[in-house]
Specification:
Elements (H helix, E strand, L loop, with lengths): L1 E8 L2 E8 L10 E9 L8 H4 L15 E9 L11 E5 L11 E4 L4 E3 L6 H4 L3 H14 L7 E5 L6 H10 L3 E6 L4 H7 L3 E4 L12 E6 L3 H7 L3 E9 L10 H6 L7 H12 L7 E6 L3 H6 L10 E5 L16
Parallel strand pairs: 8-9, 8-11, 9-10, 11-12, 13-14
Antiparallel strand pairs: 1-2, 3-4, 3-6, 3-14, 4-5, 5-7
Helix pairs in contact: 3-4
């Protein structure tokens, strides 16, 4: 099968095309014929990309751990899906990813993809939507009527946080750059603060939950606006190495969850939750997508790698257009 692998050299970290043997599903695994993979550019720098669980250096890694595709084969112990089912989900951070024609995952890490989305649009959802879901409902345990401040409300994760918090009956405040204000209001934000011109603490106080996707000074300034009993959750990468116990307690990394994927797909198919595709590129251009050099007119959602199959041409789709 064709893959795109991480290669580090004098030109920096890039992805190069490599032919690899098609993987086989183990007894408890599912083989996915990948149709599209979501892109998180910073993944190339993450520890699971550069090192094994035991700490040894990894080379030739296939990135991309969220995908949409078709069940191609199942292990002997798997009876959850049928061959040909269209699914979406994640695989293990230390496994070879989905920037390839096939990948292997566990059945509990995937669910039937939203029927109303193309594979390209569905591939933008798993990690971002599960991160929002777990931060709001598992970690912060938000309640209807609470005030939620979302830092980075127009980002790939933030746009799901805004929507889910709004659907749950929370009063949503979001920090964004000025051009994104109308977009985030349409997602359900009750108040939008342009962080480039206004300090958020000058506009809002006594919030119940801060959902931080930015980190650094933004996260650190947010403690002062939490009311007594308020909760912060953060996914900012720099939080993982903070010594402040409050930050360590607030930080989390998303985990696969089939039940949550099912609920997310249901809300999407009901039209209550929207997904957004920033741009779609073919597998051969994956390195450009990960480099950050690719420009897009939409500006919202994620970049997606599309994997043609059976000689089918690449079709450009959009989703969640407001």
């Amino acid at each position: 099968m064709k893959t795109m692998q991480v290669n580090s050299g004098k030109q920096g970290t890039v992805l190069i095309p490599v032919e690899m043997p098609q993987p086989e599903a183990g007894p408890d695994e599912v083989l996915i014929h990948v149709r599209a993979a979501g892109v998180i550019p910073t993944e190339l720098l993450w520890s699971p990309t550069t090192h094994t669980k035991e700490g040894a250096a990894r080379t030739g890694v296939v990135p991309g751990h969220e995908f949409s595709g078709v069940v191609s084969a199942e292990g002997a112990n798997v009876h959850t899906f049928e061959i040909g089912d269209e699914v979406y989900g994640m695989n293990d951070w230390y496994a070879e990813g989905a920037t390839a024609e096939f990948c292997v995952t566990l059945p509990q890490n995937i669910a039937k993809k939203p029927a109303t989305l193309s594979h390209e649009a569905a591939a933008t959802v798993p990690i971002a939507a599960l991160t929002a879901w777990q931060g709001l409902f598992v970690r912060a345990k938000i309640r209807p009527g609470e005030r939620v401040l979302v830092h980075g409300g127009a980002g790939a994760v933030g746009l799901f946080v805004v929507q889910l918090a709004h659907l749950h009956g929370a009063s949503v405040i979001a920090t964004v750059s000025g051009p994104d204000a109308d977009f985030v209001k349409q997602l359900g934000a009750d108040q939008v603060i342009d962080y480039k011109v206004t300090r958020f603490e000058d506009r809002v106080q006594d919030v119940d939950v801060v959902f931080d996707t930015v980190g650094g000074d933004t996260r650190n300034r947010s403690w002062s606006i939490l009311e007594s009993g308020g909760r912060m959750v953060t996914i900012a990468a720099d939080s993982e190495y903070e010594t402040d116990q409050r930050v360590k307690d607030a930080f989390f990394i998303v985990e696969p969850d089939q039940k949550q994927l099912v609920e997310v797909a249901k809300k999407i198919d009901e039209g209550r939750l929207k997904a957004f595709v920033k741009a779609i590129v073919p597998l051969d251009d994956a390195s450009v997508a990960y480099s950050g050099a690719l420009k897009s007119n939409s500006g919202h959602g994620k970049l997606v790698i599309a994997i043609p199959h059976n000689g089918a041409p690449l079709t450009i789709h959009t989703a969640g257009k407001l």
